[in-house]
């Protein structure tokens, strides 16, 4: 469990992290080596699930030696499938990291949602539904890992 500090409010107790693969975790199908390390750190305290609509082998190859479950969603049904998964896990105990239109519905219901502004573009709907917007995936992962950043950004 990861406690997300929110001054003036009870901490969020995060058991699950859902992260979009295309455009969020991966840029041009490649995952930054530091992002892999940070995911493995997060996986020590929460269950990490990477959501992809891409080819199975692409995500598996990019995430070798990363302690995360890869879940495949269908093109055209991704928004609904991602939201269904969030609801199954429990929105209040789930952090979501995404950037696309298909991430927006789950971002609106998650206990913590982080929108990543990516080189591949970012959906305005995802930005509107996010609790926090960051400039890259490393900042999103660090936000969850580093409580001082949480206090600064989530203060009332």
Summarize the model shown.
By secondary structure, the protein is α/β, with parallel strands linked by helices. The chain is built from seven helices and ten strands.
The CATH topology is: Rossmann fold
Give the strand order of the largest sheet, numbering strands 1, 2, ... along the chain. 7-6-3-8-9-10
Q: What distance separates the N and C termini?
A: 23 Å
Rg over CA atoms, rounded to whole Å, is: 14 Å
Oligomeric organization of the protein chains? single chain
Secondary structure: number of strands: 10
CATH class: Alpha Beta
Broad shape: globular
Could you tell me the mean pLDDT? 89
β-strand percent reads 15-25%
Structural class, by secondary structure, is alpha/beta
Largest sheet, in brief, is: 6 strands, parallel
Helix content: 25-40%
Name given to the CATH homologous superfamily: HAD superfamily/HAD-like
Low-confidence stretches: none
The domain count comes to 1
- In the CATH hierarchy, the architecture is 3-Layer(aba) Sandwich
Please trace the helix and strand order, writing H or E for each element.
Answer: EEEEEHEHEHEHEHEHH
What does this entry look like structurally?
The protein is α/β, with parallel strands linked by helices. It has one domain: HAD superfamily/HAD-like (Rossmann fold, 3-Layer(aba) Sandwich). It is 38% helix and 24% strand. The protein has helices at 33-43, 56-62, 78-89, 104-109, 124-129, 137-145, 147-154; strands spanning 2-4, 12-14, 16-20, 26-27, 30-31, 47-52, 69-72, 94-98, 112-116, 132-134. A 6-stranded parallel β-sheet has the order 7-6-3-8-9-10, sandwiched between helices. Strands 1-2 form a two-stranded antiparallel sheet.
């Amino acid at each position: 469990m990861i406690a997300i500090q929110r001054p003036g409010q009870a901490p969020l107790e995060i058991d699950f992290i859902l992260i979009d693969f295309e455009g969020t975790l991966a840029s041009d199908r490649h995952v930054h080596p530091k992002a892999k390390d940070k995911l493995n750190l997060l996986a020590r305290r929460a269950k990490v699930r990477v959501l992809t609509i891409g080819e199975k082998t692409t995500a598996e190859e990019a995430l070798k030696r990363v302690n995360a479950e890869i879940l495949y969603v269908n093109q055209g049904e991704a928004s609904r499938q991602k939201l269904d998964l969030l609801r199954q896990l429990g929105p209040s105990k789930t952090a979501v990291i995404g950037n696309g239109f298909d991430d927006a519905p789950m971002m609106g219901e998650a206990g913590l949602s982080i929108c990543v502004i990516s080189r591949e573009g970012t959906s305005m709907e995802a930005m509107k539904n996010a609790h926090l917007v960051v400039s890259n995936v490393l900042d999103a992962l660090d936000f969850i890992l580093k409580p001082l950043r949480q206090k600064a950004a989530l203060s009332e």
